[in-house]
# Entry
Amino acid sequence: MQRIALYPGSFDPVTNGHLDVVRQAVHLCDKLIVAVGVHHGKKPLFSTEERLAMAHEVFGPVASAAGCAFDASTYDNLTVTAAQQAGAILMIRGLRDGTDLDYEMQLAGMNQTMAPSIQTVFVPASVPVRPITASLVRQIAAMGGEISHFVPPSVVAPLKAKFA
# Structure
């Protein structure tokens, strides 16, 4: 049986924190699906297509190097439903700190009730990327700050262009 894992998020933009989670997750599964959430009530900085392209460009080579199949797709329903539809048995969630853990434990409990066959796997962020959040990265970029420490090289120019 193929171990399929779903890693959901907005990825607006892809950050080094996301990359850190993917680097760990590809060793836990045979196929990793990065699921880009589409929330109709929110206006992301990057379009859905741009976020999917970033995911493929940044995460695809990492998965390939680890011998893990990779795909990126979108979803606009419950994350647990997206995981079921993808055939996932694992849901990957990154943790930066205790606040994340408290929130993620609630989600994991609700998801387990709705889909007992899907196990949530918490991946702790490596120390250098723990403070990174996509919202802080967007704020820094909007104010002309240096973002290259927080996002993969291929994301720097597109992110700066959004605020040019």
Summary: Residues 4-130 form a domain with the Rossmann fold fold (CATH 3.40.50.620).
